[in-house]
Amino acid sequence: AAARRRGALFMLDACQSAGQLPLDVAALQCDFLAASARKFLRGPRGIGFLYVRAGIMPVLGDSGFLDSHSASWVAPDRYELAPMAERFERWEMNVAAVLGLGAAVRY
C-alpha cells in the first residue's frame, strides 16, 4: 500500500513463501510476485513463475528479448507486444519442467 501511494511498483520475491504460506496477490497488493519451483513447492529446478498485475501491463515495455511468443508483427516495420505476462515468456521452453511446476502447485 505504501508503494502504491507513492506511485512505485511493488515486487515481492516469494521464493521462501510459495508452498509454505498462502499467496493472495490481491491481499498482498503486489504488482509482481516471483517464485521458484524448487524450494518449498518441491518442484523441478530451473523453473519458476512470475505474476504481473494486469493493470500495469500497458505501462511495461518489452523484456529486451522478443520472439514470436512475446510479440506479433503487425506491419513490416512494427510489432505489438503480447497484452499480458506472456510477453516475458519465450517460445522454446522446458515442457517437462512446466508440467512439474503445475503438479507441484496443485499438490
In words, what does this structure look like?
The chain has 107 residues and is of the alpha+beta class. Helix content is 19%, strand content 21%. The protein has helices at residues 2-5, 25-28, 95-106, and strands spanning 11-13, 32-36, 48-52, 71-75, 78-81. The protein is flat, with a radius of gyration of 16 Å. The mean pLDDT is 87.
N-C termini distance: 31 Å
- List SSEs in N-to-C order: HEHEEEEH
Instruction: Give me the number of helical elements.
Output: 3
- Multimeric status of the protein: single chain
What is the 3D form? flat
Strand order of the largest sheet: 1-2-3
Q: What structural class do the secondary elements suggest?
A: alpha+beta
Number of strands: 5
Q: Give the biggest beta sheet.
A: 3 strands, mixed
Task: Look at the structure and give the mean pLDDT.
Answer: 87
The portion of residues assigned to helices is 10-25%
Any idea what the radius of gyration is?
16 Å
How much of the sequence is in beta strands?
15-25%
Q: Return residue spans where pLDDT drops below 50 for at least 5 consecutive residues.
A: none
